[in-house]
Amino acid sequence: MVDEALQRVPNINGDKYIDEVNQIRDSLAIMGDNSTAFSLPQPHLQRTKLCDLEDQELEPLYVQRRDELKQLVASMIKPKIVQGRTLNGKEFVSFLGQILEALNKGEIPSTGSLVEVFNKGILERCLKVYTERMEVVGLPVSVDKLHLVHGLAEDEARKLFAKQHFGKHYAAQSFLNLDEEIKKVFRSYGLANEYQSSKLCEARFSECEDKMDHLQSLKLPSMAKFNAGFLRCNQSFETECVGPAKGSYEQRMSKMLARSRALFIREYNNKLFNWLVIFSLTMVVIGRFVVKLLLLEVAAWVMFIFLETYTRLFWSSESLYYNPVWHAIVSSWEAIVYSPVLDLDRWAIPIVVMLSFLAVYWRCIGARGRIGRSLLPLYNGSFRSSSGRPRTD
C-alpha cells in the first residue's frame, strides 16, 4: 500500500502542482525504503475489555504476531543514553514522560510547530509584499482608488502564499492569519487616508475662506473680480481636495461661499454708491481748481445732484439699484475697475499719486509760464515807449 501511494503520477499537461506533489512522493519514498510494515489481527471481538483480558482469552494469532513484533522491536532498538549514561526501563519511562510534558507545553518543536514557523516566515514575506504595494499610493486618495489598490495588493499576497505555503491544516490557519494581518494594515491605511484628506481639505478650505474675506474688503468693490476669485477658489478646492473627507468639506465649502456671496452683494451697492458720491465731489474740485475745465465740473455736479436727489425723492438708496441708469453706471464702473489686463483695486493708489503729481506739476509749470508771458511784454512795451523821451527825475 505504501509503495502504491508513493508512485509518481503522470503529468502529461505539465501541471506545476502535480510536479510539486511528485517531488514530495520521491522524498517520502527515500524514507520508505527504511520502513518495516507489520500488521496485527484483531485481539478480541469485545474491544472494550481488552485491558481486562488475559493472553489465554485473546486471539491466538494476535498473541503470536505480538510476540514477533516484540522480537522485531527488540532487535532494532538501542539503549537510550542520556549524558553518557545508559537508562534502564524505569528511567527511560520517566525520561519519556518528561519529553511528552515538554512537547505538550510547546517547549520542544513538533511537526506542527515547525510547519507554523515555516509558514510564519512566508506570511511575513507576503505581508511585506502587500505593504510595499500599498506604500506606492500617495495619500490622500479617493476611497474607490484605495480599495482598488488594496484588492490588487491582497491578490498578489495571496497568490504568493498559495505558491510557497507548506502543509494543509496549518496552511489554512496561516492563511486566516494572513487575512487578519492584511485587514489590520488596510485599516491603518484607511485611518491615515482620512487624516491626510482632512488635513488637505482643511488647508484648501482655509485658503478659500481667507480669499473670500479679502474680497469682502476690496477698496474698489467689483462684482467681476469677486466672481473671478469665487470661481478660482471653487475650482482649486474641487481639484485639490481628495479623499474621504471631501464630502463633508464640500458641504462646508458651499455654505461658506453662499454666505460670502450674499454678504458681498448686500454691501456692494452701498459701497459703490458711496464711492460714486466721493468721485463726483472729487471731480468737482479737480474741474474747478486743478484743470479749470467747466465741462468736467458741470458733469460732476450733475452726477452728484442726481445721486443725492434721486435717493431723497425715493426715500432710500435701495430704490436706486433697480433703475436702468444705475445698471448702466454699474456696468461702466465694472469695466473701469477690473479687467483681466488691469486690476484698478491693486493699482488705484499708485495711479492716484501719479496723477496728483502730474496735476500739481502741470499746474505749477503752467502758472509759471503764464506769469512769464504776462510780465515780459509789459516790460518791453514800456521800455520802447520811453526810449524817445528824455529821462527825468
Automatic annotation (TrEMBL):
The keyword Transmembrane applies. Residues 84-213 form the Guanylate-binding protein/Atlastin C-terminal domain. One of its GO terms (molecular function) is GTP binding. Keywords: Membrane, Transmembrane, Transmembrane helix. The chain crosses the membrane at residues 272-291, 298-315, 347-365. It comes from the Eukaryota. InterPro entries: Guanylate-bd/ATL_C (IPR003191), Guanylate-bd_C_sf (IPR036543), P-loop_NTPase (IPR027417). Pfam families: GBP_C. The keyword 4Fe-4S does not apply. PANTHER family: GUANYLATE BINDING PROTEIN (PTHR10751). This is Guanylate-binding protein/Atlastin C-terminal domain-containing protein.
